Amino acid sequence: MQEGIFLEPNADLVVKNAEDQVLALVKKGKLGEVITVHHQKYKVSYGVANDGGQAILIKPESPVDNQVTLLVNDQIAVFQPQGCLILKTDARNFVRTYEAKPIGSVQVTPISTWNNQLAVAERQKTDLVR
Length: 130
Description:
The chain is mainly beta. The chain has one domain. 15% of the residues lie in helices and 49% in strands. It is built from one helix and eleven strands, in the order βββββββββββα. Strands 3-2-1-7-8-11 form a six-stranded mixed beta sheet. A five-stranded antiparallel beta sheet has the order 4-5-6-9-10, with no helix packed on it. Strand 5 and strand 6 form a beta hairpin. It is globular, with a radius of gyration of 16 Å. The relative contact order is 0.15. The mean pLDDT is 86.
């Protein structure tokens, strides 16, 4: 992945590239901020979770007809059309849970698992060619 979204210790969200350069910043508490990550626009809003903790909503700008893939911290999020990812944080601003609304509209996979799946798929393609 060339760019991704990362939650900073102060609860700000930053967009960084592979060289660790900050490309965009969403300050904690902002509503409806639009950022661009690898040519795709996302709307980011901070809110309060049902349990009183912090919630951060990330939604691709519409219309999105196809799946959209986004690096979020150390996870890969694959958005279905109209999917919204909700990050719920603990008191120290670590992501406690990754949730999707509607349920099932965003698949979140650890990047290590994602890389393993890509490697397996690549090996299978190579085996088919032989």
